[in-house]
Description:
Layout: E1 2-12, E2 15-19, E3 27-30, H1 33-54, E4 74-84, H2 98-108, H3 113-133
Antiparallel strand pairs: 1-2, 1-4, 2-3
Helix pairs in contact: 1-3
Amino acid sequence: MQRFYPVIIDQEGAVFGATAPDFPGCVSSGASPEEALAGIAEALAGHVTLMAADGDPIPEPSGITAVPADPACVEVCRALVPVTLPGRIQRYNVSLPEDLVAEIDASVGKGHRSRFLASAARAALRADQAADVR
């Protein structure tokens, strides 16, 4: 399932910042509004994935105009960023080389293989999607 969350892009000097009001502390910055927006999209995807893995509730999106303007910031624009919510867990049989499994276990621990593989797959898919946009 996909939800669209509001993001606010502001500017301070030559730096553009992006904040996601529904996720306090989830921020990004860049040399352009586009760079800040791409960064916040990646940050939101990771934030939501970690919240879901921890069992934290994912907030409903606020309306794009529901968040009041901050007079201390120079707001450049607002955008809606699509975020795919993690679905229910399904069990799959995956074949991997022994040495790769050993490396994964050494890095994240034997009990966290599935979470690691899911995170790696999501990161690879986001990288592919970002490459398609450019």
